[in-house]
Specification:
This protein is an alpha+beta fold. The protein has one domain: Arc Repressor Mutant, subunit A (Orthogonal Bundle), CATH 1.10.10. 42% of the residues lie in helices and 20% in strands. A hairpin with a 5-residue loop joins strand 5 (85-87) and strand 6. Helix 3 (42-49) packs across helix 4. The chain is globular. The model has no long low-confidence stretch (mean pLDDT 87).
């Protein structure tokens, strides 16, 4: 795991812009925070965030495309969202080594 701010040389600036663009929404940040320790289905997230299912699914897609979360398709055809980053109280963003 490495801190995004301390290791920007490991990421190109286009990728960095994608990260910040995906996190430029309070609900998407809350989704990441919820999914840092536990995975949640899109339905569970939509209920916890009081958002429409379709909006929650769209936000999950934005975060997935940026590489911030991963989607896991379950046997019952639901999708579980799991965060690939950790956001510290200080605002530092840590990315899991891949």
């Amino acid at each position: 795991m490495f801190c995004l701010f301390n290791h920007m040389d490991k990421m190109n600036y286009t990728r960095l812009k994608e990260y910040y663009a995906a996190l430029n929404n309070e609900h998407r940040i809350k989704m990441v925070e919820l999914c840092m320790n536990n995975g949640y289905t899109v339905t569970e997230l939509s209920k916890r965030l009081n958002l429409d299912y379709s909006i929650t699914s769209q936000y999950a897609g934005i975060l997935h495309k940026a590489g911030i979360v991963k989607k896991i398709r379950n046997a019952d055809r639901t999708v579980t969202i799991v965060s690939l980053i950790t956001i510290k109280n200080t605002g530092e963003i840590y990315i899991a080594d891949r």
